[in-house]
Design goal:
It is built from ten helices and two strands; from the N terminus they run αααββααααααα. With about 220 residues, it is mainly alpha-helical. A hairpin with a 5-residue loop joins β1 and β2. The longest helix is centred in the middle third of the chain and has 25 residues. The two termini are about 30 Å apart.
Length: about 220
C-alpha cells in the first residue's frame, strides 16, 4: 500500500470514528511524524480527505476536520430517503432471499446485546455495513451504487453519533432486521416503507440527542496554531 493511501485510510477512519473531532487541525508536520513518512504523501492524503468533504481549509491556517452541522445532517437524510428507498426496492426485486434472511437473523440476535452500553457495537456497525453491501449487490445498479458511495462515507460518521444511545442502537438493529425480512420476502413496497421509517427514526434520534460537543465548531485557533 502506498504511503499516501495508508495515511488517508487511517485519517479517514479517525474522522469517521470521532477520534479526530470537527475543527481539529490536521497538520502536515504532525501527521508526517505520526506515520513516519514525508509531507508529500500526507499532503496527498489531506487533499483526498478534503475532496471527500471530511476535511476543509481553515482560513489559510491549514487543513482541519470538517464540521457536521444539523443542516448537513438534514440534507444527508433527504438524499438518503431517495437513494436508500430505491435501493431497497430494487434489492427486494432481485434479491437472494437466503442472504437477507441470514442478515435478519443476525440483526435480531444483536438487539438484546445493544441494550447494554458498550456491548456489541463494533459488531453491529460491521453488520450494518454488510447489509449495505448486500443491498448494493442485490440492487445490481452500478450508478446507484456509485451515488451511494460518497453518501455512505458521511453516513458512517453520522451513525456514530448514536453510539452513546444503546436504546436507539437496539431499535435501529430491529428496524434493519425488518428491512432485511421485507427484502428477503421480495416485498418491494414494504422494503421501501421500512427503510423510510428507519430513516425518519434515525434522523429524529440525531436531532434530539445532545451532541453539542460533536457538531458545534471548535474554538478558534490561537496565534500559535
Amino acid at each position: 500500500m502506498r504511503a499516501s493511501d495508508r495515511a488517508y485510510e487511517a485519517l479517514r477512519e479517525d474522522i469517521v470514528e470521532w477520534r479526530l473531532l470537527p475543527g481539529q487541525v490536521l497538520g502536515e508536520v504532525e501527521q508526517s511524524e505520526r506515520f513516519g513518512i514525508s509531507r508529500t504523501p500526507i499532503r496527498e492524503a489531506l487533499s483526498r480527505l478534503t475532496a471527500d468533504g471530511l476535511a476543509e481549509a481553515h482560513r489559510g491556517r491549514g487543513v482541519v476536520v470538517s464540521q457536521v452541522s444539523l443542516e448537513d445532517v438534514r440534507a444527508l437524510f433527504e438524499l438518503r430517503e431517495a437513494l436508500d428507498g430505491q435501493a431497497a426496492k430494487l434489492a427486494a426485486r432481485r434479491r437472494d432471499a437466503a442472504v437477507f434472511d441470514r442478515l435478519a437473523d443476525e440483526l435480531e440476535a444483536a438487539v438484546d446485546g445493544l441494550h447494554e452500553a458498550g456491548a456489541g457495537r463494533a459488531g453491529y456497525y460491521e453488520l450494518v455495513e454488510r447489509m449495505d453491501r448486500a443491498i448494493d449487490d442485490a440492487a445490481a445498479n452500478p450508478y446507484l451504487t456509485a451515488a451511494q458511495r460518497s453518501l455512505r462515507l458521511h453516513l458512517a460518521r453520522v451513525r456514530k453519533l448514536s453510539r452513546t444511545n444503546p436504546a436507539r442502537l437496539a431499535r435501529a438493529a430491529a428496524e434493519h432486521a425488518q428491512i432485511a425480512r421485507a427484502i428477503a420476502a421480495g416485498r418491494e413496497e414494504l422494503a421501501e416503507a421500512a427503510t423510510r421509517v428507519h430513516l425518519a427514526n434515525s434522523l429524529h434520534a440525531v436531532l434530539t440527542t445532545p451532541v453539542r460537543e460533536w457538531v458545534e465548531p471548535a474554538p478558534p485557533l490561537d496565534a500559535t496554531g
